[in-house]
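Methods: example folding runs. The two proteins below were folded one after another, and each record is reproduced exactly as written to the output file, sequence line first and structure-token line second.
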Amino acid sequence: MALIDRIHDVRLGDLSHLIPFVVDGVRVGRMKPAFAAHLAGFDEVFHISRDAVRLSDTLSNHTQRTAAVAGVLETLRERGVIPGWRDELYPVTTEYQARSLFDMERAAAILFGLRVYGIYLNGYVDQDNRQKLWIARRSMEKSINPGKLDTMVAGGHPVGITVFDNLIKECQEEAGIPASIARHATPVSGISYIQETETGIFEEFCFIFDLELHQDFTPQNMDGEVASFQLWDLDKIKQVLAETRDFSYDAALTTLDFLLRNGTIDADHPDFQRLIMGLRYQDNDEMERFNG
């Protein structure tokens, strides 16, 4: 294996087997045919054809759409179609700054293939002019990627909160970082990726922050989602990323981004350009938009 394999792990090639999910004439997701079949009995909410699943045009505003889809999802939850219910809403939108077309239960986002958003924090320590990163190990109780290595802080971005306020909240919950320290975090980057799983399509844009921490600070998980923390040299992290799949997919990409910005992976690396491009353009649609 090599570092570029962390990009290949989440890159989708042919998307033709997926069914577009369209709201108000705009594609906002992609779903597997097996899940589309579960929507076939809800004709007042979803119109299903060979080329797309469309939310009914009779649902003309945010409130109507949110309520109608919520009713369908509750029924599918009772049927065991939607596991891991979170009671947390995600906005359905074409991009972060665009208006939300409606809100949807977080657990269903992957089934509809929505683009979701998350916040990630690289907590680093400067020791003897060398940076080290705090690496978390996810709890074995987590429903997604149990036991995998992760960034110091990571969390999904729900409705009703700003990115920075969400970061402050997640810092306290996941690593015991008080707001007085977390507020010094700097927004530094963003990555995107699409991963096909057995459940559906996970498409995410990650807001990335860096935070320098004092050598005396030791993170402590507060919500039970992290089993342990370790402070690692960057060369060790680079080796683990290149030789294993020990990191969760999103954490692998976020950490790669840190190593590229830090210079641990320099411009003479044979995959330098492909790594940078791969962190931000994960499918043909995005590349076409980028190329104009």
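Second run, written to the same file directly after the first:
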Amino acid sequence: MRTVSFKRPAKRAGLYGVAAFFSFFAAAPILWMIITAFKGDWDLYRSRGSPFLFNKYPTVGNEPSPVVDSPTLENLRLLFFETNFTTFLWNSLAVGVLVVVITLIISIPAAYSLARLTGRWGERSGITIFLVYLIPPTLLFIPLFRIVVYLGLNDTLWSMVVVYPTLTIPFCTWLLSGFFKSIPKDLEEAAMVDGYSRLMAFLKVVMPLSLPGVIAVVVFTFSLTLHEFIYALTFVSSSAHRTVSVGVPTELIRGDVFFWQSLVAAAAIVAIPVAIVYSFLLDRLVAGFTMGAVKG
């Protein structure tokens, strides 16, 4: 008589259960942010209410007893119409795109040169460049501020466009250098035998194979420009030129009053699109970071 084994379905159910638990654990902060963005003050500060539900409580005091209802759009109205949030978004997008372009223009040829054209000194130079990335920004913002003032770029978006590549180029050069080392030289040599110049062999052969590394550099650079705080706070003082990382807390923290619902709404609006991009490019990001780390 044939026996039915329940070990495999049980093992699979356990695996899915663990994956579901950790998925909820990772997504719970985003869910909480979305729900909190639509909560009223009474619902938010009521400790006995569930943070993942919209709770209703009767009002207190001498007034009649209507029900305080949630959700509300008041927090989004405050964010979009009483702050310069849309300006902050456009500023962040403009700075991020420009810094990404500058980083790619400099780090790609620098990384290729370190990986192919400098022999054993390439690895030593790559390590030296990476060590520059490890210097804390808190030690650099004062001398960089003097340079920005000397160039006449203080309180402009160009101050961040000029300064942010000092953070992104060292790491991206080191990362791409390791990625280029993982590509066999034989492919370029074969293309050059067929008549390509070194430049064309690089563009036609190396760059298509390096796409995961380039995508990793783009995502890393753009994410850094979104959340960088020290330089953006130091170099820009006017609200019209601030980015999201500085503008949102500056305008939604007024003295000892924190507009928590509007703060988390702004965080969710910025974080969710970035998370969606990460999810679509996850495989290429993992390939870019791991190959660059192993070969670098």
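Comment on the second run: The mean pLDDT is 82.
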